[in-house]
Amino acid sequence: MATTYGIELEMSSLSIGSAQTLLNRAGLNWSVKPDGTRGVSAEAVSPILGSETLNQCTTAARALAAAGATVNKQTGYHVHLGVEHYGLNGIANLVVNWAAAHDTIGALVAPSRLNNGFCRPISLQDADRTAEHVRNGQVHNLNGGRYYSLNLASYDRHGTVEIRLHHGTLNGSKIKAWAEFCNAMAEAAKAGIVLEPADHAGNNPAARLNNLADLLRGLVGNEYLSQKTATYLNGRAEELAARQ
Q1: Which residue, 38, 71, 53, is CA-closest to 7?
Q2: 39: how many CB neighbours lie within 10 A of its CB?
Q3: 98 near 165, Cβ under 8 Å?
Q4: How far, in whole angstroms, is CA 41 from its chain's centroid?
Q5: What residues form DSSP beta bridges with 12?
Q6: I want to staple 46 with a disulfide (CB 3.0 to 4.6 A). Which of 7, 97, 131, 156 is the partner?
Q7: Do the beta carbons of residue 113 and residue 167 sit within 8 Å?
Q8: CA 85/CA 151 separation, integer angstroms
Q9: 117 near 201, Cβ under 8 Å?
Q10: CB burial class (10 A; 0-12, 13-18, 19+) of residue 122?
Q11: Entry pTM
């Protein structure tokens, strides 16, 4: 069974009504809703997408940006992955792997997302405890709430895991590559791969880039991620590191 995606794009500078009209005119069955976060004017929400329809993200982002939508440090980009078919062990592995690789994955997002109350990291200890509960059939966040980098708050209602770490973007290539990376991490977890925690890179961007290259190399080698997407993500991480 193929993974499904739900994409949420937060934006500024464009009203809910204007954004909805634009997406309708673009032939997209997306919805636009209020977010409530200061600095966020609207949030565009995709229907359930598959790998063959993920390119809708590019169409949506292009239409919104052309109409004047912008992003800022308050906006985020969230991915929901449909994981009911992963089994409890696969979901538990994903929780553990995401926590183990969180410092490494941070190379792919703006620094403002790494100390952010809307996408907090899960400690390794909490990830292990959560995974144990998941394997026993209790699929929920032990810490409560959804404002974590990866959370299970939507599982009971939608059968999804939500990944909130990425900064706001209206760049279709970034949106698609990040969604594919999240899916690759989930596929590895479903296959039973459990990652060892990477050495924390601290304030050493070169070390974090090396850790990321190793992670992406493993995902490509196991055929969970394309080499094209891995190359794009490595390049993107290098661009972000150069700005720091």
Answers
A1: 53
A2: 13
A3: no
A4: 21
A5: 70
A6: 7
A7: yes
A8: 17
A9: no
A10: buried
A11: 0.96
The whole-number mean pLDDT for each consecutive block of 10 residues of the chain, a chain of 244 residues, reads 91 97 97 93 98 96 97 97 95 97 97 93 94 93 85 94 98 98 98 90 89 98 98 98 89
**Closest by CA position to 89, among listed 34, 131, 53:** 131
* 9 token code pair: 């794009």
Helices marked H in the chain: 16-25, 56-66, 87-100, 102-105, 124-135, 155-158, 172-190, 205-221, 227-243
Both tokens of residue 95?
A: 């929780």
- Crossing angle between the packed helical segments 56-66 and 16-25, to the nearest 10 degrees: 130
Q: How many CA atoms lie within 13 A of 78 on its CB side?
A: 25
Q: Report the C-alpha gap between 64 and 87 in whole angstroms.
A: 37
Amino acid identity of residue 213, one-letter, is A
Q: Residue 115 contacts by C-beta under 8 Å, 6 or more apart in sequence?
A: none
175 with 74: CB under 8 angstroms? no
d(CA 146, CA 143): 9
Question: Would you list the DSSP string of 141-169?
Answer: -TT-SS-BSEE-TTHHHHSEEEEEEEEP-
Place of tokens 């109350």: 117
C-alpha to C-alpha distance for 244 and 241, rounded to whole angstroms: 5
CB 77 within 8 A of CB 40: no
Classify residue 108 by its DSSP letter.
Answer: G
Q: Tokens for 229?
A: 């997407």
81 forms beta bridges with 5, 161
| 31, two tokens | 């919805």
